Amino acid sequence: MKTKTVLAILSALFFAASPLAGVGVTLASCTPHTVTIVSDTANNTVAAGGAPAVAVTPHAAWTAVISGSTTWIWETGPTSADEVVAFERNFTVVGAVLSAQLDIATDNSYKVFIDGVEVGADASAINFTLATQDVYNLTAAVTPGTHTLRVEVKNHGTFNASSNPAGLLYKLVVESEKCEGDITVTNNNSAYVKNEVDVSASTGGNDANGGSGSAAGNGGNVQSSNSGNTGGNGGNGGDGGDGGVILTGNAFAKSKIVNKVNTNVTRVDPCDCDVDDVTVTNNNSAKVKNYVEVKAKTGYNDANGGNAGCGCEGGGDGGNVTNSNSGNAGGDGGNAGDGGDGGVIVTGHAFAKSKILNRVNTNITRIP
Q1: Which is the most buried residue in 62, 84, 97, 349, by most CB within 10 A?
Q2: Residue 76 and residue 86: Cα distance in Å, rounded?
């Protein structure tokens, strides 16, 4: 079986909304309808000129099968060479069209029209077998109201009826629904959102201080000595060590908050139904609190030099002379050590960024 499709645009009744609490929908009541027309000799199926169609005995080569349509038809009288016979049938569709399908088999080629617009055709001479019969999706071609289906069949060849028969077998099924009453959509939304965010980054709080110098030594003492003796000098204090080197990276702090609260999207497509009123009600309430603290720092760094030794002005104390003769002297005190140089601190960049997006109570309603 060959399947052929005409692009379809479906009209239907539907609604969409965000799945939040308090969504209520009251739809109009819809009644389904089905229209089925088949090839037969009744129900006003006529050939060209208005003559009623007649049933013909299927030829042995006609193996096509269409469920619910068992009668092959043709016009009254013998077939003619390359004759084209047209068959017409009126039908009425109630409400919005959901689907329309045409099954057809012919001996030989054919064209199909709805209200004078061609919706299908097959120029092949062999359209009468199970493998070559055709199926068309005619949903886009059928609308509510009364229409005329016309099928033109051409019988190829110049043989007589027994060796060159002609015939048409078809079935058209249209599914539709008629909706009446009111459509009501109600969205009741409430929300409480609280965000507390604390973001910090730091490369500070570093120490690179120099070491302290040591104290100087005291001079030597002279006790109960003879004249002319001198006490030894005190040693010098050691120098303080230099401060160290600290290299830090970058401090980066970033905060981003996105709140999307209470979004309702409602689409009502009343198609071609007899809908009275369409009512859409959106009741939204929301409370949003954002507390954001973002900190980035490279501070609180120390790079002090070391302290000098002793902490006094004169270095170490001189030596003492006790119970000596004349001419004796105590040694000199040593010099205090120098304080160390301060350290080096190199910090990276400090970067802080905060972004807050609040989208609250968005209602979109579409009624074509």
Answers
A1: 97
A2: 12
